[in-house]
Amino acid sequence: MSTFTTVITSYLTKISRPYHITAALIFLVVGLLLYWPYLGMMPEGAHVWPQTDRLSLAINFYDFGFDFWHPRTSSFESIGGITGVEFPIQPYIASLGGLVFGRQNILTVFRLLDGLMALLGFWYLFRIVFERTGSFVAGLVPGTFLLTAPTYLFYALSTLPDPFSFSLTFIAFYYWLQYFDASDNFRDLLRAFAILILASLIKTTCTLHLGAVAGITVLYALFEPARFTQRQRIQLLSILGLGVALLAGFYVHNAHLNAEYQSQQFLAKPMPPDGVETWHEYLRVFRETWRYEYITRVEYDVLFVCVLICLAGAYKSWQQFPRVIMLLLASLAIAPLFYQLMGAQLAVHDYYIICSFLPPMIICLILALLLITTTLRKRKWIHIGITVGLLLLSGSFIYTSFGQLAGRMSDYHPPASVGYTHRWMRGGAALLKRAGVPHEAHVLVLGDYSPNMALTFFDRRGRIMATYLPDTKLAAIVEYASAFGLEYVIMKTESYALLAQEHTALLEAFEPVIEQPVVVLRVRHPEKIAW
């Protein structure tokens, strides 16, 4: 441990506790004010499809006896809805919350869980900076930076695993840095790898971060033989081996579920780019849609300044913060590697950047903060000026976050909102309940593509049919419903109007239950099949 680190650690040991508590309270209060209005709201904004897929997992864990090893959704596109999926600990915990707060509050528990994990991640980012600089204000910046980054801010309260795993990854980075920079406590290193393994199970992208940190640690073991005892080497290899076994084992388990139950509901394979055309398409979509959804204009400017600071202080940062430099270089290498693995999906899914492109941005920001706060500590007036500037920056980030989140949650947020297809489904569950449609009834939803979106909004199990009315004939709809034992058909009023020419035949096959604001028809003679 360097003399610099020893002095800073000794100093911060005396003063850190009230600052840690204050930072936690700040993030908690801001988080409550920011997220509270949306905790009970059904999935909204961009990518409602994957949000409802994850929510459907939680609801069906609750409805089907909490069988963790056989997760299922509401869609009968797989046998019984059973499907392989990345380690579903979030939906499982949310479903357990239903035992305490009721089934109707599973989504609220889900959002609360994700929001608290995001805030915990902010707190650990604060600790990484504060415990190396003694600057409380500088420690707040990484968390507030994420709070105003539209993509992260929005999905941190969704049901997706990406922000959850992102937080776990940086919590693991904290303990890894703590071992090398401050504590020399081997348990911190083991704790870091245990958390990284969990993050990798929840979101496969984080396996890249696990591999990078493991590689750096193994290099330390090779080039600094005295750092680890023989017993510690065995423990280190054991936890890494356990991690590989868990990841491989769960991959095989998911492959088995997908094959056994004929499921393709969750992507379970790489989607590499198809040549340079994929890159050009991504750049086009980035410019037109995602540029200021990933992060804001101000954040791009802040990152530009951070890059300049890191380049100017490269030598000093290597002397004082070598492990942070190593994490930065590793994360920079991971970004293009991720593109090679999943580039074909990147233009469509903005949340893919959370565990791939966002980590190097945050580490660069952290390194710049470490450099400017430690370098200018002795220059009183400059130090005060920078502190005030960082405080104003954090304040502006927090202020901006409220508008950013409201925009992402609203119906009008172009260009992303042009593709929203869930509007007509809102209030669907209450509508069916008032109409007396049994909760256990199996339904067919017309005109949708997502396997679980409409089924989740209407809170029923069944199938969807991506119809092209009026080209899709009534006979095909009747045959489809009959083949799968579906008792009700749900559609938009616009779709119902397109079937007007077949109205007589329609009434022979179906009995209208609701005709406004959506159409619900009961199949007169459904063929029952067992699921």
TrEMBL record:
Q: Which parts pass through the membrane? A: 20-39, 112-130, 136-157, 164-180, 192-222, 234-252, 294-314, 321-339, 351-372, 384-402
Coiled-coil stretches = none
Q: What is this protein called?
A: Glycosyltransferase RgtA/B/C/D-like domain-containing protein
Q: Which UniProt keywords apply?
A: Membrane, Transmembrane, Transmembrane helix
